[in-house]
TrEMBL record:
The lineage of its organism: Archaea, Nitrososphaerota, Candidatus Caldarchaeales, Candidatus Caldarchaeaceae, Candidatus Caldarchaeum. Its EC number is 3.6.3.4. One of its GO terms (molecular function) is oxidoreductase activity. Pfam families: YHS. This is Cu2+-exporting ATPase. It comes from Caldiarchaeum subterraneum. Residues 7-45 form the TRASH domain. Keywords: Hydrolase. SMART domains: TRASH (SM00746). It is an enzyme of class 3 (hydrolase). The keyword Hydrolase applies. The keyword Transport does not apply. InterPro entries: Ferritin-like_SF (IPR009078), RNR-like (IPR012348), TRASH_dom (IPR011017), YHS_dom (IPR007029).
Amino acid sequence: MAGKVVDPVCGMEVDPATARYKSEHGGKVFYFCAEGCKKAFEKNPHKYIKEPHSH
């Protein structure tokens, strides 16, 4: 999976060098396989971002 990232909405591998859809949230860039995944993420990013839990 060298050079690939995972679409946080659907779990598909995406190549950031050729990805057509991306969005920035919290200082991090997320890449998507399709416009629908990007729109779903932008509507509710916290649903798809795995935040570390503080204990």
